[in-house]
Amino acid sequence: MTQPTLYYDGSCGMCRREIDHLRPRLAPQIDLVDISQPGFRPPTGYQLGDMMAHLHFHDGQRMHVGLSASLGYWHRAGGGFRWLARVLALPGLFQCGNWAYNRWAAWRLRRLHCKPPR
Fold it and tell me: What InterPro entries does the record point to (predicted)?
């Protein structure tokens, strides 16, 4: 089993603010990896462009992408984030939330001018 790892885009202000807010809760138990840093190498089988387009969270056993990634690290953050993760994981709500996440992720890359994939 490997250390849980959250791969996030630190060049995106919104992404960076969320991780900075959660860092005290996450850092003791999860490696936080800013994929926008020079020299970052994606894990085997993953492409930087895909990782820039959607959040990735490796829970120690498997990789979660998009909303599933958010739910994974929110659950580990505890408090109200754990409650939010449980609610959004419910059937129906997850599908709606995943749809919204995918729209937001596409908009983020187009409109916020986040650093393009290398």
Answer: DCC1-like
The three-class DSSP label of residue 112 is: coil
- Number of compact structural domains in the chain: 1
Q: Tell me which long-range contacts 62-68 makes (C-beta under 8 A, separation of at least 24).
A: 66/98, 66/101, 66/102, 66/105, 67/94, 67/97, 67/98, 67/101, 68/98
Element (H, E) at 48: helix 48-53
Domain span at residue 27 reads: 5-111
Kindly state the average pLDDT of the residues 102-110: 89
pLDDT tens readout for residues 55-88: 999 999 999 999 999 999 999 999 999 999 999 9
Residue 88 within a domain: yes
Render pLDDT for 28-49 as a digit per residue (tens, 0 to 9).
999 999 999 999 999 999 999 9
Q: Is residue 94 assigned to a domain?
A: yes
Instruction: Give the H/E segment covering residue 56.
Output: strand 56-58
